[in-house]
Each structure stands twice: as C-alpha cells, then as structure tokens.
Amino acid sequence: MVNTKINDYYEKLIKVGMALTAEKDYNRLLELILTEMRKIANADGGTLYILTEGQLCHKIMQNVSMNVFLGGGGESIGFAPIVMDEANISAYAAIHQTAVNIPDVYHTNLFDFSGPKNFDKETGYVTKSMMAVPLINRSDEVIGVVQLINAIEEGELVPFNKEIEKICLALSSQAGVALENMQYVENIRGLFDSFVKVLVTAVEERTPYNANHSRNVAVFVERFAKAINTWQEGPYAGTFFDEEHIKRLVMAAWVHDIGKVTVPENVMNKPTRLASEFDIVSKQIELIEAKINERYYQALIEPDTVQATARELWEMDLAFIKHAREIVQKVNEPSTFVDETLLRDIDEIYMRHFIGVEESLLTDKAYEFLRIQRGTLTHEERTIMENHVVTTEKMLSKMTFPKDLKEVPCWAVNHHEFLDGSGYSRGLKGDEISTEVRMLTIIDIYDALTATDRPYKKGMPPERAFMILGNMVKEGKLDGELLKIFEHTDAWQFKN
C-alpha cells in the first residue's frame, strides 16, 4: 500500500515536471512550483522565496485553511526579505543546499521560530511541522527556497515524512532547472529588447525632431490592444490580445522605423522646403538687388530723360524683388500649401531676368524645392525617406528573432501599407494586411499628425487628426472599425 502511494507520488512528480517545462509565464511558474509541491506534501501552506542580491525575497505565499493566496499575479507580497542567517530555517537550507525537516517548531531549538509563534498568537493559527527545500539550478547554485508548513494526514497535523522529503527534493531540482531556463530566456529577451532600443536610440540621435515617435507608437499600440480587448460591438468584438501578443506588438512598434538610421540627415531633418538652400537664395537676391541699385546710380549722371526711365525701371525691379522675397519666405514654410497661384509666382520669379544682371533670383535646386506643393520633400527625397521601410526589412532580416517574436518583422515593415493597395513598399491590400499592421498604421499616422516636435509643421489637435484619418477610411486606405475603437476609447489620449 505504501509503495503504491509512493509510486503515485513519483508519477505525479513526472507530470509536474512536464508542466514546469511547458509553463512560459514566470509568475505562473513560481505559483505552479509552490502549489504542486504543497499538494504532493499535502501541506496546508507554504512560501516560495527567490534569492535576490543575497536575500530571500517572498514571491508566492499560500495557506489553504486561511484562504490566503498571494503573489501569483506578480504583485508584491509586502514582507521584508529574509537575511541569510542560519538561525532562519529557509536561509539555512539555502546556505547549506539541503532540505531541512522540522517535525514540530514548538519542540526544537535548532532554529529561531519566534516569527511563526508570534503569528500563531496573533491569528490563532497553529504552526507545527515545517520543511524548507532549496531550489538549485544546473550550475549547483541556489536560486530560491520553498518552505512548507503543516503536513496534514486524515485531518491531523503531522510531520513531513522522509519519502515526501525526497520527492520534494526531486521536484525542487526540476523546479530549479525550469526557473533557470526561464530566467535565461528572460535574460536573452532583455538583451534583445535592449539591443532594439539601442537601434531606436541611434535613429533618434540623428533626428531630434522625431525623438519620441517610436516610444509614442509603442505606448499607443499597447493601449489600443487593451481597448480592443474590451470592445463589445462590430467585427472586433471578442478579439483579445493576451500579454504576450501585446509584447510582440510593442516590439514591432519599437523597431518599425529603425531603417531611418540610413536616411541622410538633410532629408530626415529637412525643416523647410529650401532648408540650407534658403541662405543661398537670400544672398542671391541681395546680390541682384545690389546690382540693380548700382545700375540706377550709374544712370543718375545721364540726361534727365534717361534718369526718369532708369528710375521707373529701378522702382519696378525693386518692387518685384520685394514681392519675390515675400513669396519665397511664404512658400518656404512647410505649412504653406503651394496652389496654382503660388506655382505661377514661383515660375515667374525663376524666369525673371533683370537688365544688366546675369544671375537669376532662384537656383535650379531652389526652384525645384519651392515647387513642392505639400511638406518639405521633393519626389526624390520622399522616395529616399520611404526607402527606410526596405532598409528596416533588410536590418530585421539579419536579426534572429525568437519563435514567439517571429511576426514582429512583418508587422514592423508593413506599417505604411494601405487597404486599397496604394501604400508602400509591397503594395499590399485588403486581407493581405493583418489586424496588427492596420493598428500600427493608424497609430503611426495619428502620432505624425499630432506630433509637436516636428520642425516642418505644427502638431494638429486630435479632432483634426481624426477627421483626416476618417477621410482616409472613406478613401479605402484604413480600417474604419479599428479607427472607431481607437477614437472612441482612451487609447489615443497618451502623449509624451
């Protein structure tokens, strides 16, 4: 009968070991370790400690008879860490890497049990048997301790027997390895996350006006996903993003623009249409103005009739120079839409020649820049900027993403695709564009429209941004149902 019971324990031990290996969430793993060890030992309560900076920190606490279950969600339990003093049973187990089994805490002087005894006085609880088992990794290092309280047999408090002690030691070894594996994975993930943020920082350092964009998109997409989780109408009712899925979305947000690291700074940070060319144009206009004045002053020594004609020409040319300055300054501002009237003005300025002056008011480059109707980039410059998506794809293809992050590159690369196929760089459309990409696209555009740190435009208020996004829905570019969720929840209300 006893052997049968022991065999049952070992069979359960094997199943628990498999469960430990399968668990991917750190807090659930800690809870599983304590829960299963407590069940195998038939203990009323227990605490799992993790060794952190030379102290045992409370992570999970359970007591069945008192209905206490703490720490399973990763929340702080609130107890002070245990110092590594041999007078404490759990610290002793960790220091000596051995199980410690005390039949009755009230009939031993081996350890200081004043804490449990005081707890008993205050609550009426009765602490009797106690066992501490170290969690040891494959490098033979203690990473934690499980402390069990009050073995129960047929309703009575009894000592933990030696066979149970052996089984708990075996389980603690499996648990130690499982924890080490998970910590190793978490360390690799942490290193990977840090590397990604280093790349993002490199982009931000090259473009101070865009410094918060990746961070904003990461925050928005997390809030957006959680908003979708609570949405109860339309095609996205019932859609749910778990924490791991949200982490993948946030990762995609962080890396979606890393290809901008190769975009030339004169394109990336172009604040106005003329940018550095503005100084050249200004000096050119000053030079021409000086030559016009010199021509007139020379005419003052001519007969009165010549002087009169010269003066009329001089005043006409200066008036045009003044007009040219005003137009150039106006058109140079990125907020100005260059309509047909302004295009004709620019053409006239470019073509204008003055008597006795070889130079033109505008260089060929300035003329090209001033004919940009929206924004600050020429078609060629915009192509260079849009190519950051291709570069992002090339960079991400060189990185080995863990299996659980395999969708991240695709989501990141496709954030400029539109449902009608007019986006870039693949020209995807309709069902070819995943929900995650549709979310990132909306957020990317919203943040760009409302950003206040861009030199080439003022950030617009949210209501104006949503009007533009709504028009893009009508044009068939964006997902209207997703935009409705984003607009009518608090997902968009974060801003750095």
UniProtKB/TrEMBL annotation:
InterPro entries: GAF, GAF-like_dom_sf, HD/PDEase_dom, HD_domain, HD_GYP_dom. Residues 188-496 form the HD-GYP domain. Transmembrane segments: none annotated. This is HD domain-containing protein. It comes from Fusibacter paucivorans.
